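stage 2 :: seqdesign
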């Protein structure tokens, strides 16, 4: 009998030790999003994903699960889930900046480059291949992506120039196909001058990376 009691006592001690060890390895949040002591995060994004989360094994698991969820939920950026603006720039000369903001509730991928159509043009301008980013531009809800349009030759060497007063911006899918949901950003009342040297950059994650082209 004493041997049985001793075995049960040892089993209870082992179980208690395991429970304490499990709690010490668990990162969790309370209702206000504050982390318990001992929990760690590897990035700002992980910290945001922890707010209001259920107990998890560790911060690495939170990061992996968050990224996997984002990839599954992301959609393609297009006219129906974004807002596009077009603003002529003083510098660089004869450039226009396109800004696309994700107005949807899910992240969206901004693939390739804008297919811009001024007035009733029959073709879209070529892209500056050197501007291709290393990764696809991904916009979280409320975030913006950018591209520049070189409207005309700065030295006046372009030909077949005209003033355009309307613009359509078409988006592409991951395979380069054009999507039907276009954006129609407003242009200045006086229009913008375009010649046959017009070209566009790839979509960029950062503003500075767009206007250098």
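stage 2 :: out
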């Amino acid at each position: 009998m004493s041997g049985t009691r001793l075995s049960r006592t040892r089993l209870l001690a082992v179980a208690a030790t395991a429970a304490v060890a499990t709690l010490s390895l668990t990162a969790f949040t309370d209702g206000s999003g504050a982390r318990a002591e001992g929990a760690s995060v590897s990035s700002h994004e992980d910290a945001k994903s922890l707010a209001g989360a259920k107990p998890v094994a560790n911060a690495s698991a939170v990061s992996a699960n968050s990224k996997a969820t984002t990839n599954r939920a992301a959609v393609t950026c297009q006219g129906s889930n974004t807002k596009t603006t077009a603003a002529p720039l003083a510098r660089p000369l004869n450039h226009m900046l396109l800004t696309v903001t994700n107005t949807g509730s899910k992240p969206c991928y901004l693939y390739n480059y804008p297919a811009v159509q001024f007035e009733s043009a029959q073709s879209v301008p070529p892209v500056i291949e050197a501007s291709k980013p290393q990764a696809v531009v991904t916009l979280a809800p409320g975030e913006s992506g950018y591209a520049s349009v070189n409207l005309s030759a700065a030295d006046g060497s372009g030909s077949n120039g005209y003033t355009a007063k309307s613009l359509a911006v078409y988006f592409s899918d991951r395979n380069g196909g054009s999507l039907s949901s276009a954006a129609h950003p407003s242009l200045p009342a006086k229009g913008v001058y375009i010649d046959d040297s017009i070209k566009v950059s790839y979509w960029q994650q950062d503003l500075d990376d767009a206007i250098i082209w």
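stage 3 :: structure notes
- The two ends are 85 Å apart (CA to CA).
- The chain has four helices and ten strands.
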